Amino acid sequence: MTVNPSTSLGFGHFIAQADVVGKGLLVMLLLMSAVSWYLIIMKGITQFVRKKRSEQFLSFFWNASSLEAVQNEISTHGVHDPFSHLTAHAMHAQAHHAKYGAAKLEEAGSAQDFLTRTIKKTLDEETMRLENGLTVLATVGATAPFVGLFGTVWGVYHALVAIGMSGAGTLDKVAGPVGEALIMTGIGLAVAIPAVMGYNWLTRSNRVLAAKLDAFAFELFTFLSMGQSLKSENVRPLNLGKPNPAQAA
Questions:
Q1: Which among 94, 124, 127, 240 has most CB atoms closer than 10 A?
Q2: Tell me: the pLDDT tens digits for 146-177?
Q3: CB under 8 Å to 43, separation ≥6 — which residues?
Q4: CA angle at residue 64 from 58 to 68, to 5 degrees?
Q5: What gap in Å lies between CA 26 and CA 158, rounded to an integer?
Q6: The dihedral of CA 225, 230, 234, 238: what is its sign?
Q7: SS3 sequence, 203-235?
Q8: Pick from 96, 55, 68: which is nearest to 213 by CA?
Q9: For residue range 117-152, what is the model confidence (pLDDT) as tens digits?
Q10: Please, how many CA atoms are within 13 Å of residue 68, restricted to the half-sphere of its CB?
C-alpha cells in the first residue's frame, strides 16, 4: 500500500504545511534551545574548573608561610579563580596605599577604607562574572512555552480554516492537523525545561561560591589589616558600642 505524502501526518507534514510565521517560530525555538544548551554546558564546565582551582589556591593560601609566598605564587602563575583574583587585588591595594598614600580621590581615607573598597569592588566584579548568561537562561525558560503555544494556536487556526474550506469537518479530518499543531507546544516545553533546570542549578552553584568568597574576603581583610588570621586567639571581636569590661572596671 502506497502512502500519499500529501495526506500523511507527522512533524514533517506539519513543517511542510506551515507558513512563514510557523517556520519562523520553530527556528526561534531551535535557536533558543541551542543558546541555552551552550550556556549550560560552557558554564557548567567553567564552574567545575573554577571550583578545582579555587580549592587548590585556598589550600596553598592557608598553608603558605607568609604573604610574600602568596604574592610570589600569584606573580608566577597568575590568577585563575575568584579567590586568587580577590587576593591579588587586595594585596596590591594594601601595597599601593602604603607606598603612595591617598594620591587620588578613589584612594581617599585610611588604608583599611581603601582596602575595603577594593575588596567590595572585586566581589562585585566576580558576582557579575558568575551571573553572566543567567538572564538568557531565565528568559528562555520563561518565554519558550509561550512561543510554542503561539505556534500551536497559529497552526490550529490555519488547520481549522483549511478544514472549513474543504467542508470535511469529521473527527478524523480535524484530529490530524490539530495534533500536528500541538507539536509546537511540546517543542516549547522541551526548550524551556532544560533552561529552567540549568538556571536553577547554576544559580545555586553561584550562590554557594559567592558565600564562600564573601567569607574568605572577610578573613582576608582581617588578615591583611591586622597581620593575623581570625582563628588566632589574639584577635578580639569588634566593639559594636558595648562597654568594655576592662574599662568599666
A1: 94
A2: 998 988 888 787 777 777 776 665 665 666 66
A3: 133, 202
A4: 110
A5: 16
A6: positive
A7: HHHHHHHHHHHHHHHHHHHHHHHHCCCCCCCCC
A8: 55
A9: 888 998 998 889 888 889 999 999 999 999 989 888
A10: 0
